[in-house]
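Continuing from the previous page...

OK, I double-checked the sequence for DUF599 domain-containing protein against my notes and this is the correct one:
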Amino acid sequence: MMPSAKLITVPNFPLSISYVDLIALVWFIFCWYGYNIVNDNLVKSTRSLRARMHLYRIQWMVTSLSRDNRVLDINILANLQSSVSFLASTSILIIAGLLAALISSEKALEIVSNLPFSCEMDQHTWNSKVFVLIFLFVYAFFKFTWALRQFNYSAVLLGAMPTPKGSPEQFLPTARRAAIICTLAAKHMNRGLRSFYFAIAVLAWFIDPWLFIIATGWVVIVMYRREYRSEVVQVLNMPSENILSDS
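Thanks. Re-ran it with the corrected sequence; updated structure tokens here:
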């Protein structure tokens, strides 16, 4: 094991962390919180995955105005709800497992100490890192459950749409409103999923804080590429004539 660095301790609080660990934690918070703020609120690119999917949700809801039978639309929303519900349930199970790791911290520390290149860690440091993981999955659980509620609201708005009798243009605001609620639900679902991604980076913290810093940056790069540079984004941004010619 690598020698431990000088520790910062807080009296009467189960926190013990080295200076390098503190730098890594600050970098992690900056990347995690900063990416959510920049991607969801500051970046206004119309070619991102989030922006393109919002346009398709509007198209979906507007198209549903012309359908007498909306079983297909309800099935799509039910599928989205089941996916979010599964992720929320998974978050609860992971939180339970992490609480068990706190109880059996001595055995867990013994296992981690046998890993190559792992840093020396006392029980308070272990607990501090596990608490960070617990916070991430608690945050993810609240985001998933809020997204689930918003998908339920979307289903209500979809059911409130009138059947096509005459011109559907007067009901376009209702369709757009349902699409916006769907997009908000997807936004919170994505934030929960990002917590899962960043939790993978936190696992590297149990081995080495420098590896934690690298893993956090790697997660940001992966999420950026999937949001703005992935093949899915390229296909969604292709003109219709190019898609027809490729097929």
